[in-house]
């Protein structure tokens, strides 16, 4: 028998405490605001570009058919369930965290590729909806980065604050990131948050954004949401995301995520993808027949309790020649 989820409302209770990296988020009106939808600008190229320049982001409600997104959610979560990352006493679509018991035994390189190449997942990330908007923004034909970042965020996990530029800047900087919730995602469950007006911060533009993540060994810019606000921008902006929503932003927009504090133990599932003009140079870390990201011996598999981002270990895991995970501080696994 499939278990029933507890009836816990987390959507609108202002008494619930939101955190990011363990730090409290100030929920006062001048510190936390709502993303402004831009659906009325679709098809108006001039307005889309002007609004992206002004806000540093564009947020669309229901840009993608929710049924397509839910199909992608089921496809991806079914694969995580094989690793024990989903508790099979509940419906797979609920995304209730399991113990991940099979993770050390599998070929994570093959697993990661299977998730990124799924039919419904690709229909979301490579679909005409996002390609059309990014083509309008960039005034030309676009390509999607060959690396796609499906993100599975367990309860208790989060994300440090950063801009995408230093991780993507070895080609053009005319790139847009798309954050796509694969299902409904509330702030309490780890929704994305962007810092208002941070794309105009001279402190970021003259310092951090001139860096290269690999060359300079970057960790997260900061963990504390209040400190980040005081240094780089104004309000944190977020919303109650629903399946079909899409958030686009540029390389200079500072962002992060709330901690996943789902009272049901639900994992957050989302996707990050990048889009640029097809006739401009692309960062070789994420493109080409044999792109290697942050190193060919690593696999994108976020989480597992390593959150200092030292040498990208909280998101990129060392694996052996058979693709099996090798966590830092552990002895080498017997290869026989």
Description of the structure:
Residues 1-12 and 330-336 have low confidence and may be disordered. The protein has helices at 45-55, 66-82, 108-116, 119-125, 128-138, 165-168, 202-206, 225-232; strands at residues 19-20, 23-24, 32-34, 57-60, 142-144, 149-153, 159-162, 175-181, 192-195, 236-238, 246-250, 255-257, 268-277, 298-300, 316-318. The chain starts with 18 loop residues before the first strand and ends in an 18-residue tail after the last strand. It has one domain (19-288): Sandwich (Jelly Rolls), CATH 2.60.120.620. The protein is α+β, with helices and mostly antiparallel strands and 336 residues long. Strand 1 (19-20) and strand 2 form a beta hairpin. Helix 2 (66-82) crosses helix 4. It is built from eight helices and 15 strands. Strands 4, 5, 6, 8, 11 and 13 form a six-stranded antiparallel sheet that branches. Strands 3-10-9-12-7 form a five-stranded mixed sheet, with helices on one face.
